[in-house]
Amino acid sequence: MADVGEVLMSVLSTIRVPKPGDRVHKDECALSFSSPDNEGGLYVCMNSFLGFGSQYVDRHHARTGQRAYLHITRTRKTKEEDINTGSGHPPKKKPTRLAIGIEGGFDVEQEQYEEDIKVVILPDRQEVTSEDLTTMPDVVKERVSLSMAGIMAADSVSHTLQVQQWDGEVRQESRHAADLKQLDNGVKIPPSGWRCDVCDLQENIWMNLTDGKVLCGRRYFDGTGGNNHALLHFQQTGYPLAVKLGTITPGGADVYSYDEDDMVLDSKLPEHLAHFGINMMTMEKTERTMTELEIAVNQRVGEWEVIQESGTTLRPLFGPGLTGMKNLGNSCYLNSVMQVLFTVPDFQSKSVPFFFLIAPHAPVPSISLFVYHRAKLGYGLLSGEYCKPAPDPGDENDGDQIGIAPQMFKALVGRGHPEFSTNRQQDAQEFLLHFINMVERNCRSGANPSEAFRFLVEERIVCQESQKAKYTQRVDYMVQLPVPMDQATNTDYLLEAERRREEGDSAAPTVRAQIPFTACMAALSEPEILTDFWSSAVQAKTTATKTTRFASFPDHLVIQIKKFTFGLDWVPKKLDVSIDVPDTLDLSGLRATGQQPGEELLPEVAPPSLVTPDVEVKAPVLDDSTVSQLCEMGFPLEACKKAVYYTGNTGIDAAMNWIMGHMDDPDFSAPLVLPGCSSGPGTTPTESVSEEHLATIVSMGFSRDQATKALRATSNVLDRAVDWIFSHLDDLESMDVSEGGRSAAESEGRDPPPGPRVRDGPGKYELFAFVSHMGTSTMCGHYVCHIKKDQQWVIFNDQKVCASEKPPKDLGYLYFYRRVAE
């Protein structure tokens, strides 16, 4: 075996020192969820800075020829070690700021670790420690030492994502502050002892800065807080600014602008307070600020005992399909949704087998490939490889696992999205639809796991004047059930609790509304009245009824309980309800029946006239107002023009439906091309492809014909072509690509099957999972999920996976049903 110093000298040119902007993956293996905490540690390539587990580093070496790796192993200190070694680490500070990655904000959890690092040279795995470097030539010692130090000093990609700065306290100067009108009405406010002028409430008290009126604040979702008297005063007077009494200090106070509907800054606050006899410099804080109240909500996760089953001793579970997921900073919404999805057979079958099929195709797996990382996540959750108890979890965390930390996956699915790319809490329902949309984009042919949820909805609209009907179908992935609060079965208790709160009774109980599930279903199935319907039969606007039914029943049905809504004052709130969601569901009675015997249909709107090639093409006459409305929603101008054109100028609803159905089209934003016009460059199927792009894809192990097919399908865009080819591995071998670049089906002129592909069957289902939310809104709080596995309910609470004793099925937000086989 060659001397290790000589070996290092021979590979010195491949060893790089990380520069600003380099992405260092030192927490997660590119091919698995191995980390420095796992057995065998992590090997970081000292050239590309990609990390690899012990079982994958040899593969990377064989495919790239790279030999030098920094081997990182990490063991967590026990609590006894921290105490005995006198590490001197200060206790965690209580958050004082609603922020992440900012002084005073929430700390990213920093475990105390013992780390060991050394350079490993492959293929013989020769080891070089920092001490060994001291005996080597200066040129070797300097380059290798700088690379080692640079890798260890650099923030890993996962850490950068986790502590991405977010400040929930940034406030803007109110536009009313500089010229606020204040009434000379002689009102003087005492320094303490404030009560609402209307209801005598003594907490959550606000003073209007225009007239000095002292009133209580808004009522919270659970009935606490106030009685909305300060808000009602603004609605009656239009006086915009109010200050929360009890938060005034020499450094400032909470100021709210009802007109701007936000917490604001008031640069003239001392002057405005002095007008009513308040000396800001002598005031002391006696109430929690709005920020402190929000922080309390974010710290109160462990107090929500019912949903997390905290009142019982839960038995930890381990094994395949029982792997926990680390919370990466408000990522519980992602964790809960993905745990449920990988219980569905369609997602399972596209994960573990795909993981072993995809990984060998690329010399260095691209960390931007959606299909790859979806398969990698599925393997991590289903294999059981990472389902091990956390070392020294402590009594308060009994049941925690090592689990997996899918930083790369989270970064990928959130890339470019204004919400999911942040560390803020998100709506699990919105994320589920976002993820399904990504699956759809990456599975244009072949097996598509999202088909398990896809179904057709039939809408029947009947013109009340002509009694003629119109039938339309649309694709959906979720049933959204309204919550009819007027159908509560415990109305008397709710009214009594409300009365006591309005009278200022601090001991008034919080009563949860009991809503029958049948009432929610009835609200969904009953006809909707359309008061502004344009009838093609009478050529005028009139009244119509719309009835919604299932045109097909999916294999798996998702039901959302619409708990999040807006009050009359447009303030977001969450309905605190308990719904007796059944274990089994029979929706057969909601099957669509189509046109009835003897029923007349509304006349079809005449489509745009066709233009032949020998006729002069004129610009279409488009409804400018509809185009403008669509543009204001953020859609591209050309897409808006096409939506209005192809729906025959029939209005905003039809155009919007066209846009939603064509958003994934490759030419969605391309200019409108009329029939008979020559299509623009780059649209013909025989367009030449980039030789450079071809060579790149061929170097990954694919044939030239397969690479050509991928490039043609994605308008010659390399990144999209690579994503496309990995999402079509099922049928790559059977692709028949002609020299012209078209498939046999295209060459013969065969059309693809019309309409979306949906599955259908009986409308009988059984509940197998549900996702629950705790908190005042989708933007704060915590998510957990319960999944039924082998007739046993299991709770997945981030890294904690336990047998459920009392699954709170009445408090769920998203419910997942699967078809019952007949």
TrEMBL record:
Q: Which UniProt keywords apply?
A: Hydrolase, Metal-binding, Protease, Repeat, Thiol protease, Ubl conjugation pathway, Zinc, Zinc-finger
Q: Which CDD domains match?
A: Peptidase_C19B (cd02658), UBA1_UBP5_like (cd14294), UBA2_UBP5 (cd14386)
GO terms for MF: cysteine-type deubiquitinase activity; zinc ion binding
Question: Which of this chain's residues are annotated to bind Zn(2+)?
Answer: 196, 199, 216, 229
Name the catalysed reactions: Thiol-dependent hydrolysis of ester, thioester, amide, peptide and isopeptide bonds formed by the C-terminal Gly of ubiquitin (a 76-residue protein attached to proteins as an intracellular targeting signal)
Q: Which PROSITE patterns match?
A: UBA, USP_1, USP_2, USP_3, ZF_UBP
**Which residue windows does the record flag with biased composition (Basic and acidic residues)?**
745-759
Q: What InterPro entries does the annotation carry?
A: Papain-like_cys_pep_sf, Peptidase_C19_UCH, Ub_carboxyl-term_hydrolase, UBA, UBA-like_sf, Ubiquitinyl_hydrolase, UBP13_Znf-UBP_var, USP
* EC category: hydrolase
* Residue ranges occupied by any UBP-type domain in the UniProt entry: 172-280
Q: Does the keyword Hydrolase apply?
A: yes
Fetch the PANTHER family from UniProt.
Answer: UBIQUITIN CARBOXYL-TERMINAL HYDROLASE, UBIQUITIN CARBOXYL-TERMINAL HYDROLASE 14
Tell me what this protein is called: Ubiquitin carboxyl-terminal hydrolase
Name the source organism: Scophthalmus maximus
